[in-house]
Specification:
This protein is α/β, with parallel strands linked by helices and about 325 residues long. The chain has 13 helices and ten strands.
C-alpha cells in the first residue's frame, strides 16, 4: 500500500463484462505483483448483470487508493460505444499493462520485468511476453501461441504483416505517452489488439521478452473464443478495411491492399458453393465489408486477374 496521493508508475487496465466467475482471479493476480513502484488498477465494467460489479466494489472499498473503477450504466460494446477512451483517459501511470476480466497474470514479477525492460529500451513503445491458453477451469490447453516463434523486435510493418497481435492482450505493456491523445479513425472504428499495435508503433517498436507471464481463458462466454472461423475472417476484414482507409498507412504500406484482397477472397470462398445464388451472396457480403475502401478499390478487387468473383462467374455463365 502506498500513501494517498502517490502517483502510480504503472496503470493496470482491465475490461470486464459478466466475469463474476473469473474477475477475482485477475484481481488477486494483480495484487500479487511484486514491484518496487506504486501501481493503480483501473477496471472498466461494461454494465455487468451477473454480480461482477458487487465483486469490484468490495475490492474498491477495501483498497480505495489502488482501484479506480469505471462503471457503465448501459452496455457499450453491444451498441458500438467506445470502451477504450474512458480507460485510457483515466490512466495516470507512465506505463500501461492490459488484461481482460476473464484472463489473469501468472508471473508475480511480470510488471517489474516489463518496466525494467522499457526503462532499458527507451526507444521502444511497448513490450510483450509469451502466454498460455487455459479452459474455464484454468487447465492449460493447446493454442496457436504454442507454435509462435517470436523475434526480439517488431516495427510497424512487422506488426502489420507478421505479428498480427498473435499474443495475449494480457501480455502487453506500453508507454502511456505512445497512446495518442487523439486516436486515429481506424482504432475508433475497429479497436483491437491488432490496431493497437499499429497505433503504438507510430511511437517506436514493440519488444519481446521470453518468459511466460499470463493466461488467456477460452470459454463459452468469451467474445473472441466463441466466434466461428467465418466470423473471425469477417472481423479481420473489418480491421484491414479500417487500416486501409487511413491515407498515411495506405501510402506507406502498399501491401495493405493485397492483404485486404486476400482476406476478402478467404471470406468469399467460405460462402461460395458453385451456384449463382451463392456467388451473389458471397460477392454481396464482400462488397458490403469493403464499402469503406471506395469504388476504385472495390472494382480492383472484383476485376483483378486472380479474383474469385471474376473467374467463377465466368465458369457459371459459360459452363456447359
Amino acid at each position: 500500500m502506498w500513501p494517498e496521493g502517490t502517483v502510480p508508475v504503472v496503470s493496470l487496465c482491465c475490461w470486464t463484462y459478466n466475469h463474476k466467475k473469473f474477475i477475482a482471479e485477475f484481481i488477486q493476480a494483480a495484487l500479487k505483483q511484486k514491484t518496487s513502484f506504486p501501481v493503480e488498477i483501473i477496471i472498466h465494467d461494461d454494465a455487468s448483470t451477473d454480480g461482477t460489479i458487487e465483486v469490484l466494489k468490495r475490492y474498491e472499498q477495501q483498497m480505495p487508493n489502488v482501484f479506480r473503477n469505471i462503471y457503465q450504466k448501459t452496455n457499450q460494446y453491444s451498441t458500438g460505444g467506445d470502451i477504450n477512451s474512458p480507460v485510457f483517459k483515466a490512466v495516470r501511470g507512465e506505463f500501461v499493462a492490459l488484461c481482460e476480466g476473464d484472463d489473469y497474470w501468472t508471473d508475480e514479477d511480470k510488471i517489474q520485468k516489463q518496466v525494467d525492460y522499457l526503462i532499458n529500451h527507451k526507444h521502444f513503445a511497448g513490450v510483450f511476453h509469451k502466454g498460455v491458453a487455459v479452459d474455464k477451469s484454468g487447465k492449460t490447453i493447446s493454442f496457436i501461441w504454442d507454435y509462435c516463434v517470436y523475434q526480439q523486435e517488431y516495427n510497424q510493418l512487422e506488426c502489420l504483416i507478421n505479428l498480427k497481435s498473435a499474443y495475449p492482450t494480457s501480455a502487453l505493456m506500453f508507454r502511456s505517452i505512445a497512446y495518442p491523445s487523439r486516436t486515429p479513425n481506424y482504432f475508433r472504428e475497429a479497436g483491437s489488439d491488432y490496431c493497437l499495435d499499429i497505433m503504438l508503433t507510430e511511437y517506436g517498436p514493440l519488444g519481446y521478452q521470453d518468459f511466460e507471464g499470463s493466461a488467456y481463458r477460452q470459454h463459452s462466454e468469451g467474445i473472441w473464443s466463441t466466434l466461428s472461423l467465418a466470423e473471425m475472417n469477417v472481423t479481420m476484414a473489418k480491421r484491414l478495411v479500417a487500416l486501409y482507409r487511413n491515407r498515411v498507412l495506405r501510402s506507406r504500406y502498399p501491401v495493405l491492399q493485397d492483404m485486404l484482397h486476400q482476406q476478402l477472397d478467404a471470406i468469399w470462398w467460405q460462402v461460395f458453393n458453385n451456384s449463382l445464388s451463392s456467388w451473389l451472396k458471397a460477392t454481396g457480403l464482400c462488397c458490403k465489408l469493403s464499402i469503406g475502401i471506395g469504388l476504385p478499390g472495390l472494382v480492383l478487387w472484383i476485376t483483378r486477374y486472380t479474383s474469385p468473383p471474376r473467374f467463377k462467374l465466368r465458369d457459371i455463365l459459360f459452363r456447359t
